[in-house]
Specification:
Length: 393
């Protein structure tokens, strides 16, 4: 049996043994923006002067507080201000002032020159579409600091973890309402000035993410080789799934639409972390939301929320006549999304030195197990993948 133990061997065997159709060519990268272990905090005197000069008159900085970060290379601070409203502002600190020209996610699509911060480019497009995104107070490009509207500290994940079933369902329906608004209004008319319209979830990108799982979610995680006798049929099944998903009509896709990127601000649900948006299947963001790495929903509720999503689309005259076919697409998307997440969490630990997402791997893989067992035609994938992934056994 032919096996590999390292990423380099993985790549060579992939190119030699696998189908040459989708040997997932190098995307822009797995992590193009160089990772920096730490950033120096912004100078408070400088921030205070910027607030006085560029934000609404009368605002005075009272202090800066570092906020808990995500898996990105950015840092976030809350600037408490007197003389408002507003009474606080969020500072987004880029890893480097020109770092915005590189994505932290792999991307695929037509070559497009990036001349504007993707966060601002996508934010402007979403705001025009009526999606609740933070307002920009000021962007200091030289210093790599953005002064943004503060949506507060409470994520959807935190809200639903402390609420009853009725309110949980209400909150998720609100998230679906925002998602439908984004998919309908941000997709058409197409805007060539929006970066999302120049990149897409094509087969190459979907396969890159599947390969990312094989490389990190299996080989790196186990520190043991994976044999080509299993890898080849697994990758063939991944190709089939990728072709199905890439063949669906494309809509504006957030790419990370989940409970930690939705902020509960009173009655409003704010959307953040949208800078990697692209065009993709309608099921992608829905799968991100309902097959969340951080919140596991009851299966009956997932069924109800998928139906609610389709009802909301139908009210806007976007009708899926075959709901069973849509559900299968949703489940296939979940397999792709959840495997990618599992691999990414290992990557974040091994490469970025951040192990906090490892505890979420069993949850995302439990979704994969359920979906592999649900469809008999996925038996080949289940058979060859399960020996390498304890959570699928």
């Amino acid at each position: 049996m032919k096996c590999w133990t390292s990423p380099d061997q993985f790549g060579r065997l992939r190119d030699k043994l696998g189908s040459t159709r989708y040997n997932s060519p190098r995307m822009s990268t797995a992590n193009p923006a160089p990772f920096k272990a730490s950033l120096s905090p912004p100078d408070q005197t400088f921030v205070a002067r910027t607030i006085e000069a560029h934000l609404p008159p009368g605002l005075v900085l009272r202090g800066l507080t570092l906020l808990t970060g995500d898996a990105s290379n950015r840092r976030y601070y809350r600037a408490a201000v007197a003389g408002g409203p507003p009474h606080s502002v969020i500072l987004m600190q880029l890893a480097e002032p020109e770092g915005f020209k590189q994505s932290e996610e792999a991307v695929s699509g037509a070559t497009h020159q990036i001349t504007e911060l993707p966060f601002l480019n996508i934010m402007s497009h979403l705001a025009k579409a009526g999606v609740p995104v933070p307002a920009l107070h000021y962007y200091d490009q030289t210093s790599g600091l953005l002064y943004l509207e503060d949506f507060g500290d409470v994520t959807l994940a935190e809200t639903v973890s402390q609420t009853d079933v009725s309110n949980l369902e209400s909150r998720y329906k609100q998230a679906i309402n925002v998602l439908v608004q984004m998919q309908v209004k941000a997709t058409t008319p197409a805007d060539p000035g929006c970066l999302a319209f120049h990149r897409s979830f094509d087969v190459s990108l979907l396969m890159w993410e599947f390969d990312h799982f094989l490389e990190y979610g299996i080989v790196a995680r186990r520190s043991k080789p994976m044999c080509a006798d299993d890898w080849m049929p697994i990758r063939h099944e991944f190709e089939n799934i990728s072709e199905i998903l890439a063949g669906q009509p494309r809509v504006f896709t957030h790419r990370d639409y989940h409970s930690r990127n939705l902020m509960v601000d009173g009655l409003r649900l704010g959307v953040i972390d949208f800078q990697d948006a692209l065009m993709g299947p309608a099921t992608y963001d829905l799968a991100s939301l309902l097959r969340d790495a951080y919140i596991q929903l009851d299966e009956a509720l997932v069924d109800d929320l998928v139906a609610y999503y389709l009802d909301q689309l139908a009210e806007r005259r976007f009708v899926w006549t075959n709901r069973a076919a849509f559900r299968r697409l949703f489940d296939l998307t979940s397999i792709q999304r959840n495997l990618k997440a599992a691999g990414r969490f290992v990557y974040i630990d091994r490469v970025k030195g951040n192990p906090k997402f490892l505890a979420d791997i069993p949850r995302v893989l439990s979704y994969v197990k359920r979906n592999l067992q649900k469809y008999p035609d996925l038996e080949t994938l289940r058979k060859h993948l399960t020996p390498y992934v304890p959570e699928l056994q």
